Fold these 3 entries.
Entry 1:
Amino acid sequence: MIIGNELVETLYDDIFTKVRSGFGVSDEFLLSNFDFENLREGGGKGGSLLSRSLCGNFFVKELSKSDKHTILSGSFCELYSECVLSRDSLLCRILCIFTRRVDGKLYIAMGNCIPISEKSWDLIYDLKGTADDKTLVRNGKTVDEVHKRFWRLDWMFLEAIGKVTKNRLRYVEGKREAFTSSIILTTEQKKEIMTTIKRDLQFFVEQDLMDYSMIVAIKQIDKVHEKISFESTAIHEDMYNSFKVWDGDKLYIVYVGIIDFLQGWTTGKRVAHVIKCMFAPKPISTVHPVVYAEQFENFFEKKFCTT
């Protein structure tokens, strides 16, 4: 396969050819539609490289050591493909796995859970049902991540006397809002999405996975678009999971997708669990896959409120 005009070595492509075909994605989807020079640290704790495709419909991400262990396990790719091709899944669509010849690193290419046809979202949340929840976008503006680090004694002092930077305050408020605010759906929509979540969680538990997130993007739609299929404006619309819902006299479109689901329950995570139980804000994300799945399900059962 050629990605970014560079010949790469694909893995399990007999499986992912079926996934691409199932979602109407050409084998040449990243031929000249990606530039490896755009790869940057994605902002997560692992520091893996990440970049969008030039068209914005896809992402390429470098795999961490733990991600590689999951991807290269005997059954993951086959079971994953069965899950997403059933169409009853919120999982982000992995479209290929490949190794670059120039650096030997392993990458995945995946579909964007949010259509690029909408340029300004009212809200985008990254949700786990834990203290790690955060707001990524609010009122069309990106919410910068401004973490409090123990080695920044100046920050500690300023926060202790009530002097917090605007960006830090906006980030903290966004975290609180992401964890506590409700998302409105109809009764049937909630039933549908919770049934799908439970099916995906069963897959995660069987694969011993945890620390995944739900991306939720929300946009109020003008009344003139009430009878227009919002999704039809986006390319590769089958890759998206979306709902239209009225809340009073306001019409919203809600997109959801589960991402970052390759983290296994490793020795490092077990050690981190002990440390975070003692020092980190609760609820924590670093818990056994069975506990994480139960926590995730219970959170969204309460998060999704019906009209």
Entry 2:
Amino acid sequence: MKDLPHVIWLKAFDSAARHNSFTAAASELGLTPAAISQQIRHLEQHLDAQLFRRLPRGVSLTDVGQAYAQTIGKSFEDMALATNGLFGKKRTRILRVRASISCAALVIGPRLAAFKAAHPDILVQMTTSVWADRFDDEALDVDIRYGLGNWGEAQIAHLGHEYAVPVCRADYAQSFGENLTIQSLAAGDVVQIIGSETDWGKLSELHHLGLKVTTDWLKADSSLIALQTVSAGQGVTMVLESFARQYLDQGVLIAPVPYRLPKRRSHYLVVNDRAQLKEEVRLFCNWVQSLYQEMTFSEAEHPG
């Protein structure tokens, strides 16, 4: 086994191979082209192999030089990654988060830039699901789940009580004229969210409204689809106020009647047991909890 070549020779070779030029390598390393040529010559003598062809104008790698350049280049990259990873001041930390498509798109996503600004060294990888009640992917660190909170993980945090409200476009509400009531809305084009079909009936019972939802105009498997559908101009949907908030704040949709339905289920932060000690998990969970507290306060101040 040959002794390893001097690292200075390897550095000169790596730079010259990447640039395909002794002159460019000299500029990158702060040396003269003659010094680069000499170091590569020493390397070739040590290896007993020609790494570059010397041409009338410039140089080019030989076949063995090309193969060696790939290996040496990767070795320098690996050393740089290891050094930065272990000793760098701001090592990038990856945080893997899962939420429903509606929660991710309507609550977390629009506000995630604030978390990134506060923690630029944390790379958030967000994935989505329709329904999730366990960590079927062990790589996940945090789940934002909708339910009753009766799961098996050790660290589960309630994010606050949720309310559902009927929402629609203002022009759709105006199409009822003087006949706009919660009863007329329920008898109109209702976009039902799969899994929440009983909300209209529960709202009716709570407020003694006598609602009769005649037919479902459309069914959607997510609140996001339902909101996008009614924001296009047709129909009404009963949806979580936290999901509808940006549509209401931007004036895209309105809550045309003052009725709200307290939901039995709500959102929870669930931490994978293996990720409990990660600082990035703690920082993200604190941020999400603060976010939901602000949203709850806003909804209490400005319902509907």
Entry 3:
Amino acid sequence: MVARSLVFTIFLLCGSAAYSQSSHLELQRELESTHDTDAVKQKITSYIARHKGTVGALYLQALVTDDAQKSVELYKKIRVRFPHTREAENAILRIGQYYFSRGLYVSARKQFLELIETHPESELVGEAMYFSATCLCASGKEASCHAELKNFLAQFPRSPLAKMAKQDLKEMGVSTNGKPPAARTKVAKTDGKYTLQVGAFSQTNNALKLRNYFSRLGVPVEIRKKSVDNRTMYLVWIGSFESKATARSFGESLKREHGKPYRIVDLN
């Protein structure tokens, strides 16, 4: 009877832990896939209150915090307090992505390399390898970037990022000796009258992903916060153009080469 009670108690404890783990992962997936973020955020707030101090609660709190710097601090806390968890792996990756979006490519690369070194079995290693290479591209070290992208493709040919890596290599071009050219054409950032809007999101994470994409291409990009129908939207703007014709010409090349739709925004 005692043994049966003990087994039942263990079952309850394990079941509770499994439910807790599943619950915060389900909330994360729901947050990333739904358009009704306010409803999901209410669920997340309730979860955080019930599971305060757990890795799941800290990670969800970091996801829904509007202040990017505060999110980074929470991710750092996860990395220190729960170093052997999947959330720690994701936290390191997101810290790196944050630094990249700020143009801090050396700091960003350090995070991506740390993820590869400390979590070699992580399913995020391929992603970290790709982004660490793009940090080199963004820093103007294209020869090294070229080598690391080739290495990434050799190790992760079926990665969702493989197509982007191939496109990166194609845009860099390869000379007869197999090395990329020393320089890459970039769009100058000026105080023009027009810009291109290439995305509008209700979640900052999605806006940051698109911002990172264009940062890698060397295109001036920024995120603007705007209230639309009592909802906060994050607009992704790229470039600055003196004329509407110039903006349209660049937008069409963007659409043709990268499949990205655009809208011309008058800054006057």
